């Protein structure tokens, strides 16, 4: 018990265990008696995927903690936390790489509404092209299958 008050590291990179069960990775900018000011908080997500038939694999990843905002700094009340811990070195490197990408994206964002609309239009045009390319590929696959289809077989 005598070691409980000793700080083991000066690293600002922390994992916050929220009372709702989420693990939030972040950089703590300021700590107050009742809250943390954090930068680029990310929540740990787990996805189950079938790698092979009857072989389930769990992938762990990170995503933005709060969606639909371009803010990178947040205040998290200590009342919503179960505990905090310092991130391991390996996870800190991964977090820094993702956090830097998010910060760069938000600092290069267009400010003018017309620029935002142009960016959305460009993204929609690219998506339409990708969908057309995929539809063309699928049609050629179906045509290929249809050419060699055995008409005598009946499938139920």
Structure description:
This protein is of the alpha+beta class and 156 residues long. The protein folds into two domains: 13-109, SH3 type barrels (Roll); 110-148. The chain has two helices and six strands, in the order ββββββαα. Strands 1, 2, 3, 4, 5 and 6 form a six-stranded antiparallel β-sheet that branches. A hairpin with a 2-residue loop joins strand 3 and strand 4 (55-64). The protein is extended and about 55 Å long. The protein starts with 12 loop residues before the first strand and ends in a 9-residue tail after the last helix. Residues 144-150 have low confidence and may be disordered.
List keywords for this structure.
2 domains, 6 strands, 35% strand, SH3 type barrels, alpha+beta, 156 residues, 2 helices, six-stranded antiparallel β-sheet, 35% helix
Which word captures the global form?
extended
Q: Indicate how many domains the architecture comprises.
A: 2
Q: Would you identify the regions where 5 or more consecutive residues have pLDDT less than 50? A: 144-150
Give the ordered list of helices and strands.
EEEEEEHH
CATH architecture type of the largest domain = Roll
Return Rg in Å: 24 Å
Average pLDDT level:
82
CATH topology of the largest domain: SH3 type barrels
User: Per DSSP, what share of the residues sits in E-state strands of 2 or more residues?
Assistant: 25-35%
Q: How many E-type strands?
A: 6
Largest sheet: 6 strands, antiparallel
Helical content (DSSP H or I, runs of 4+): 25-40%
CATH top level of the largest domain is Mainly Beta
- Total of DSSP H or I helical runs spanning 4+ residues: 2
Distance between the termini: 70 Å
């Amino acid at each position: 018990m005598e070691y409980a008050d000793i700080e083991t590291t000066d690293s600002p990179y922390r994992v916050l265990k929220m009372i709702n069960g989420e693990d939030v990775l972040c950089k703590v900018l300021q700590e107050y008696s009742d809250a943390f000011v954090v930068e680029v908080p990310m929540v740990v997500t787990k996805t189950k995927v079938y790698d092979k038939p009857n072989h389930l694999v769990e992938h762990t990843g990170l995503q933005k903690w709060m969606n639909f905002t371009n803010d990178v700094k947040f205040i998290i009340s200590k009342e919503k936390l179960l505990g905090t811990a310092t991130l391991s070195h390996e996870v800190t490197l991964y977090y820094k790489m993702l956090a830097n990408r998010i910060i760069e994206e938000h600092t290069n964002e267009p400010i003018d509404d017309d620029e935002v609309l142009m960016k959305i239009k460009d993204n929609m045009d690219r998506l339409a092209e990708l969908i057309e390319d995929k539809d063309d590929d699928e049609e050629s696959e179906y045509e290929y299958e249809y050419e060699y289809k055995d008409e005598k077989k009946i499938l139920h």
